[in-house]
Amino acid sequence: MTRKELTIDYIEYASIEELNAEDRLLVEAAIDAMKGSYAPYSNFNVGAAVLLEDGSIVKGANQENAAYPSGLCAERTALFAAGANHPDKAPISLAIVASQNGVICPYPASPCGACRQVMAQCQTRYGRDLKVILAGSECLIKFEKVDDLLPFIFDNI
Ligand code: THU
C-alpha cells in the first residue's frame, strides 16, 4: 500500500487590476457576457468568455429552462459555442463571473462538476492546457490548468 498526496495549484488576486492585460480583458468579456444570461428561475446570472489561440473571444451565459435540467451553465455554453463555431482554434483561457440582482458576486462562482468535465475534455481535444479564471469583485482565482480543478479526470479518448 502506498499513501499518495496530490497538490493543486492556483493564484488568488484581490482585484481585477492585479491581473495581466490579457486576463483582465477576458474577465471584462465575461462580465459583458452576463448580459446574455437567461436566469428567470435562479436570478443568478453567469457569464463566461473563452480566449482562443488566435486571440478571438467567444462568450457564453447561463440559459435556464422551465424543464430545469435542460438549462446549461455559462461555461459550457461558451465552450460549446467555441467548439461549434471555431473547431480548429484551441481555447487557451476561460473566465467566469457571476452576479445577483445586477451586482457582481464578491467571491467567484465555482464551476459545477459537469462543466469541469467539459473543460477537461477541451484540454484533451486540443492537446493543451486550459487556464481558468474565476472572477469575483473581491477575489479572483486563476488555475493554470483544469487538472487543478478536476483531479483524476475521466478521459477515454
Ligand atoms: N451556473 C453557471 O452558469 N455556472 C456556474 O459555475 C455555477 C452555476 C448557473 C446554472 C444556473 O443557471 C444558475 O447558475 C444557478 O445554479
Explain what you see.
- By secondary structure, the protein is of the alpha+beta class.
- About 25% of the residues lie in helices and about 25% in strands.
- The protein is built from 3 helices and 7 strands, in the order βαββαββαββ.
- Strands 1, 2, 3, 4, 5, 6 and 7 form a 7-stranded mixed beta sheet that branches.
- A hairpin with a 4-residue loop joins β2 (about 45-50) and β3 (about 55-60).
- The protein is globular.
- The mean pLDDT is about 95.
- Tetrahydrodeoxyuridine (THU) binds near residues 62, 109, 111 and 112.
Gyration radius, in Å: 15 Å
Percentage of residues in DSSP E strands: 15-25%
Main structural class: alpha+beta
Cα(first) to Cα(last) distance is 29 Å
How would you sum up the major sheet? 7 strands, mixed
The distinct bound ligands, ions and cofactors come out as: tetrahydrodeoxyuridine
Number of E-type strands: 7
Shape: globular
Mean pLDDT across all amino acids: 96
Helix content: 10-25%
Poorly predicted tracts of residues: none
Total DSSP helices = 3
What series of H and E elements makes up the topology? EHEEHEEHEE
